[in-house]
Amino acid sequence: MKSCMGHILEVDLSNGTIVKKKVPEVVYDQVLSGKGLGAWYLYKHIPPGADPLGADNIVGFVSGALTGTGALMCGRWMVVTKSPLTGGWGDANCGGSFSPAIKQCGVDAIFFKGISEKPVYFFMDNEVCEIRDASEYWGIDAVEAELKLQEIKSGKKKPSVAVIGTAGENLSLISGVCNEGGRIAARSGVGAVMGSKKLKAVVLAGNQKINCEDKEKVKELSKDLAAKVKKAYPPGVMKGRIYGTLGKVMGALPISLPLDGPTNIAPLRKWGTSVNTVMAVNMGDGPVKNWGGVPKDVSALAKSFDPDNILTRETKKYHCYACPLGCGGVIDISDLNGGEFAQTHKPEYETIQAFGPLLLNNKLKTIFYINELLNRAGMDSISAGNTIAYAIECFENGLIDKNETCGLELKWGNDQDIVKLVKLMVAREGIGDKLADGVRKAVEYFGPETAKYAMHVGGQEPGMHDSRFDPQLAVHFMTEPAPGKHTIGSGGMYGNMALWDICSWAPTAKPHSKKADHIPNEEIGIASCATACYSMLVDGAGGCYYGQLMGVHMWKLIDYLNAAAGWQRTGDEFLEMGKRIQTLRHMFNIKHGIKPADRHLPKRMQGDPPLRSGPLKNLTTLADDQAKYHWQAMGYDPETGVPKEETIEALNIPSLLALEAEVI
To answer: What span, in angstroms and rounded, lies between the C-alpha atoms of 464 and 467?
Structure first.
């Protein structure tokens, strides 16, 4: 593929060897780069039964096939590994500057195995490629460690750094990998894998050229997209609270209306993802009180998260690499907690929801502070919020007492003790040590009677979108190889993307009764299959979730890929590529003893028993039944979720796995 570097790097931390290898061209032709390249490599090289925190596990840093080509919204990087949180496939995704930095070092991926005897970091530029001592950086938070590592000189270029914080060093199973001041590739416990290997950071400072077959076509596509995004900026008089009203209306409607993808652009440009909270709580999309209920006055809770209150603190906006949207921002928090921190990244929707409505905490300032604590520690806010919600409900029901909480009053909305608990989790002290590995591990300690309060799917805590509100999301929570992730697909996402206009077999989304969404059927199964396949294509390209939500007519991923690679492939052919990536990931899980259909949603997340009030009143989702239609559409056994042999053969996976990268 003309837009890929064609090489990977293998680093053995046990013996210090570093090997550069050439990847067969057909691998890129079949699975792109990014998550696809990672799935191909990890399936081949991690043995069954490997301890996720042991020497046999591999952690890889992979860039996207479109990163560096001039394609907009294609600057994401991924960490891939065997997850210590779920025991199966694990991956995490992040923006920032690290994705192009990988390719500018002349490779598409760097894979680490083994365990170092002492803390180390890996450094690479155009000339140097080596493992270095990291003793002076160990024990330092992710933000400060990155700043120190960026002082390393390599010509005129400031290095790009992927680094773990203290949560990763402490082997927290809900820790991630950070870049650009605490932005986190957060999910699947990838930070703990780095910590187990004593790998503090990966520091990259190359400046090699990244190729592209048809630069003019890519430039034309990007110019068109940038112009459309610029036109979508909302008038300055628009107030964030209008999205609360919109949420009420959408929640009250008896029908679901597919929304045009570009409608997402204006609010994201002005407020970032924080605009979603006030809308999600009112419409039922945002889980509340550990997914267990809603207060009598939902609107009053939602008002606490008016995105305009966040904008008053914003000191600057920022864009990810190659992004015209610019949904990120930095906010001033120097007046909080005695000025401990000067600033933090504008908290994302997931963090606000997880430490706000999920805990019935309406103190926005506290969430700002927690956001920076987690960013510096490198801890996943989704998993941390779900875990604290579990602890509060256990405390409320007498299953955990003050002797176990170090005297903390774990009550809904008690923001000061929530902050103290976050600090204990980061430090692995007291009860924090029992909660730092997520809810499934916490249940092992506190007892099976607490399991009904533990919201997880296959060991991973779910993203902050309610599966009762969107039954197609419920299916993806269960059927995704890295379960519980909200970015793979949903009914609302399917309507945004308009995949039926690039894929001959994808059904057209139409207005329909909300009750119809909760009745399992074949059409929804085909739609969820198409979404999963397209999402894998996005991750193989290094694409952004918000580009995906713009829809295929605005963010023209298929055209970008054809131009950059010199291909003339159809949408159907590309979605088959996505299915190949997804199937490889499922095969990885099966190889490591995980049966796809054995993962289920907690009863509460399916509406069993149904909520008695609020936008989701009396809604029940038959997720297990709908999952069978998803497996069927994927070409898997509908009862077990195991890919059929004929599907594996048709996707050419056996031939792909027979290929080997060659030592240069």
So the answer is: 9
